[in-house]
Amino acid sequence: MPALQVRHSTSTHIEAHTDELLDWDLRYDQLDCGRFEGRFTDIRCEGLQIFQETTTRRVRQRGHLPPGSFSMGTMLAGEGSLHVNGRSVAHDTLIAVQGQELDLCTPPHCTLAGMVVDTSLLHNAAAGRPDLGTLLHGQTLQAVMAPAPTLVALRALLQAALALAQRQPEALQAPGVQRHLRDELLWHAVQALSSAGPATEPQRGHSRKQLVDRACELMLAPTEVPPTLIEVCARLGVSPRKLLYCFKDVLGQNPATYIKAVRLNGVRRDLASLHATVLDVAARWGFWHFSHFSADYKRLFGELPSETLRRQRGSSAVTLRH
Q1: Are 141 and 71 contacting, i.e. CB atoms less than 8 angstroms apart?
Q2: Mean pLDDT of 131-139
Q3: Domain ranges of the chain
Q4: In the predicted model, what is the mean pLDDT of residues 29-42?
Q5: 5-200 placed in CATH 3.40.630.10
Q6: Adjacent-strand bridge partners of 260
Q7: What is the mean pLDDT of residues 179-184?
Q8: How far apart are CA 89 and CA 83, in angstroms?
Q9: Which of 54, 121, 149, 316: CA 20 to 30 A from 76?
Q10: DSSP collapsed to 3 states, the chain
Q11: CATH entry 1.10.10.60 includes domain 203-321
Q12: Residue 199 scores a pLDDT above 70
């Protein structure tokens, strides 16, 4: 059996945190104000990954996990609600993802723990359980309510493995320990999934998320003059009141606040990847009043855009020298 790998990382910038996710193709947008701190623990053995992630700020995570995998996660801590695919869910919810875009809004000081397992391994563990068909086949992102005993047992096993990786990682290297851990996690995962039920009303949440996604497309489309909220509502055929309710339900924020945060996150990513001035990048994202832009940027991220640019170019220079 291949050697088990254990990684721990601590980051003080959201872009550095996402770099630690390796083969997870995710983009993070910071949605509330303050300096970001992130921690990530990653245990990998054949066919299985166990993870724990802590983020201090409210974040929207969107993207995909590795192909051919089935992912499960649960929130261990957080100052507020977790939104899954546009629906607010309780803390005791289990998130199951296979082959579909992951879309989470996590609250401040959130800790998530879970596992990513090869789909074939989970199918073998669930053999003879036709009640799992809707979860294990096709492309799904579901928030489900598992009975408390099964969810508590799964969480306890995840946390025990993560704690051992922190204290005594060499204890996880024995092939027998790896097989036992993997089989026990698969067994508990199947038990939790087989007795779980929907956590929300899927249809209502889906229609509201579709409306919010379409509104975001219109407001973030490249154009010299971004449409106003009134114009967006007219294009979508909805009232401003309804659009506000949908944004609050799906993302936990009003449209103007969310769109400004996404645009500021876009500036931050471009400052790390483009050879351009702060003014050019800000204009690219529709910010024309530079002093207001700088103040909004510092309020959200805790540093001026010029500080972000200096730090990014400084780290790039160090990388080139090495």
Answers
A1: no
A2: 62
A3: 5-200, 203-321
A4: 95
A5: no
A6: none
A7: 90
A8: 6
A9: 121
A10: CCCCEEEEEEECCHHHHHHCCCCCEEEEEECCCCCCCEEEEEEEECCEEEEEEEECCCEEEEEECCCCEEEEEEEEECCCCEEECCEEECCCEEEEEECCCEEEEECCCEEEEEEEEEHHHHHHHCCCCHHHHHHHCCCEEEEEECCHHHHHHHHHHHHHHHHHHHHCHHHHCCHHHHHHHHHHHHHHHHHHHHCCEECCCHHHHHHHHHHHHHHHHHHHCCCCCCCCHHHHHHHHCCCHHHHHHHHHHHHCCCHHHHHHHHHHHHHHHHHHHCCCCHHHHHHHCCCCCHHHHHHHHHHHHCCCHHHHHHHHHHHHHHHHHC
A11: yes
A12: no
Task: Return the structure tokens found at 276.
Answer: 């351009």
Q: Tokens 């996690």, residue?
A: 185
pLDDT band at 111 (very low <50, low <70, confident <90, very high): very high
Q: Is 173 exposed, middle or buried (0-12, 13-18, 19+ CB in 10 A)?
A: middle
